[in-house]
Write a structure and sequence with these properties.
Helix content is 43%, strand content 17%. Helix 1 (16-31) crosses helix 2. By secondary structure, it is α/β, with parallel strands linked by helices. The protein contains 7 helices and 7 strands, in the order βαβαββαβαβααβα. The longest helix has 16 residues, at 16-31. The protein has one domain (3-175): Rossmann fold, CATH 3.40.50.450. The chain has helices spanning 16-31, 44-55, 87-97, 108-122, 140-151, 157-160, 169-177; strands spanning 3-7, 35-38, 60-65, 80-84, 101-103, 130-133, 163-166. The protein is globular and about 45 Å long. Adenosine monophosphate (AMP) is lined by residues 9-11, 39, 41, 68, 72, 87, 90-91, 106-110, 112-113.
Length: 184
Amino acid sequence: MKSVCVYCGSSAGRRESHSDAVFDLARSLVARGLSLVYGGASIGIMGMIADAVLERGGKVVGVIPEALLRKEVVHDGLTELHVTGSMQERKSRMAELSDGFIALPGGIGTFEEIFEVWSWARLGFHSKPCGLLNIQGYYDHLARFLDHAVEEAYIQPRFRDMLMVENEPGVLLDRFQSYRPSGA
Ligand code: AMP
């Protein structure tokens, strides 16, 4: 694994303690020599993770659609910036450039992005690991709902297992590094 895509909020949320967890993830990525691929913005948790990786000497690749260059306030200090023509192109580019996908706390965009790559994994379109970094229980309710979907026989257990849920970045990255997909 060389690079990990992190999906996260364009908002900062309201818990200061979330930023400590973001720094932990940045530290873990840099310590393992993994570069960060993310949405290219300087705001919210997105800006926080990019700054934290750069400050620790890591490599950060941003991918942003032209239409959001202003709205999401593009980060001007990235190692590499890709500007795409559309949101779809942004997501495909992020997926191509990454060897695994993590969602930190975020909102609608974050959910959509991690669910899309998880659904691609389930269909066998790629064999890269996907996970939720469950900072301070942010994703507890979602994880319970996904288990409910398994109980109701709408998701097979082996596909549910393709979306890892961990509280610690180091544990999640260890699981990524030993990941073998069960196959669609
Ligand atoms: P949010 O979690 O809603 O704060 O959004 C996080 C990131 O997801 C931002 O960079 C949004 O531009 C992006 N985003 C929102 N909706 C989509 C979408 N449909 N496709 C791709 N990215 C999106």
